[in-house]
Amino acid sequence: MADVPVPLTILRALADETRTRLALAPSIEHPGESGRAREQTLMAFIEQLIPSSFGVSTGFVVDALGGKSRQIDVVVYLTDYHPVLEIGRVKHFPVESVMAVIEVKAAITTKKRLTEALGNIASVKALDRINRRSNARLVDRISLGGGIDQDEHNGQIFGAIVTEKSLAGSFSPELLAWLAAHPRREWPNVYADVHRFSARYRYMWSDHGRTPRRPSVGPETMLAESLAIEPYVAATDSPMDSPLVILGRELINWFRVVPRIDFNPLSYFPIQLPESRDLALLEGTEEPKEDRLDVVTPEEAAKRLNIPLSMVRQYCESIQPYPCADGTLKWRLHEIAQAHANTGRAVSRQTEGR
After folding, report:
1. What is the pLDDT of residue 46?
2. What average pLDDT is seen over the chain?
3. CB 213 within 8 Å of CB 204
C-alpha cells in the first residue's frame, strides 16, 4: 500500500480535532454562545487551509447593485485588495472579495432548517459578482479585463453547509426538491454532516479537454447529473474520508483555481453630481431664482414674520436689496428675521442695564 502523503495525514488530524471540538459545543448552555463556538471552531479549521492573503470572518455580503445576503456564519474573503466596511463591528463584504461561504448549524433536522441553510447560501450566490459583466479578472493587482462568467463553476462563490445532525430518511428528497426549484448557480457545493455523510454531485468530468471524460464526484453544480451521498462511519478501518476532510480538500482545491475579481469603487461609492441647474448656479452661468432665495416685499415679510410693517421697512433700510427681473426690489426673508432678532436682543440688554 502506498504511503499516505503527510499533508493528507495532517488534514485528517485537523478534521478529527475539529469534529471533537464541535461535539463539545452543546456543553455551552447559552444557545447564542454555543452557536458562536461552532462558528469559531470551523473558522479555526479553515484558517489552517487558506492562503495568507485570505481571511475568515462572519457578516453580510453585498454587491454594487444594492443586493445584500442574509447573515452568513463563515465568510472566506480576500484581505489585501477590497474594502470591508463595518457597522457596529458587523462586517459587510463586497461580493467580489468573497471566495467561499459556509453555514454552520448544530442540527438540520427539519425541512424548515434545511431550507433556511440552503437559502442563506443561495442569498450570496445570487448576488452579482461581476457587476453587470463589467468586472475584470485580477492578476497581481492588475485588472486584465473580461473572462468572468457566473454561469461557470470557477466564476461563482463556493458554498457549503456543515452540521452535526441531519434529517433522517428524508434528507435526499428534500434537498433534491429544493435544488429542482432553484438555479444551479445558487446550489451549495458541499453538504457535510460531520458524523454521518457528505453530499456532493455526480457528473462526467474532463480536465479542460486534456483528459478523457470520466465519471466523477465533486462540487461542480453546473455539471451535476445526480446527487452523491457518501456515508461515513468513524472507524480506523473506514476506507472513506470524513466529511470534514472532503470539505477541506475541496476548499484547498477551490482556493487554488478561483479567480480574483476586480471591483469598481464608483459602483459602490457613486459620486452624487449636482443637478444641471445647481451646477449652473455654482459655475455662475445662471442667475439665482427668486423662489430659491426666499426674497419678499416688506409687506410679505411683515405678514410672514408677524411684525409691524413699519419695523420691517426700517430693517430694510440697512439690508442689501435683491433686484428682481421685473425691476422691483425685494429682500431676503432670513436677513429681515435676523435684523428683528438683533433688535430684540439690543432692547433686552438696554432694559437690563437700567
Report:
1. 95
2. 86
3. yes
CA dist 234 and 217 (Å) reads: 21
d(CA 42, CA 45): 5
Q: For residue 164, what is its C-alpha cell?
A: 452535526
Cα four-point dihedral sign 310, 311, 312, 315: positive
Contacts 24+ apart (CB under 8 A), 309-315: 311/340, 311/343, 312/336, 315/339, 315/340, 315/343
Query: In which element (H, E) is residue 123 found?
Result: helix 111-125
Contact assessment for residue 283 and residue 274, using Cβ atoms and an 8 Å cutoff: no
Grid cell of 67 as nine digits = 443586493
Calculate mean pLDDT across residues 77-95.
Answer: 94
Lowest mean pLDDT among 34-43, 266-275, 287-296: 287-296
Predicted TM-score (pTM) of the model is 0.75
User: Which residues touch 73 (CB under 8 Å, ≥6 apart)?
Assistant: 39, 42, 58, 102, 103, 104, 120
> Residue 57 pairs with which residues in a beta bridge?
75
The string of pLDDT tens digits covering residues 16-35 is: 999 999 988 888 878 788 88
Question: How is the chain split into domains, by residue range?
Answer: 6-268, 276-353
d(CA 52, CA 251): 14
Burial class (CB in 10 A: 0-12, 13-18, 19+), 266: exposed
Q: For 249, what's the count of Cα atoms within 13 Å in the CB-facing half-sphere?
A: 16
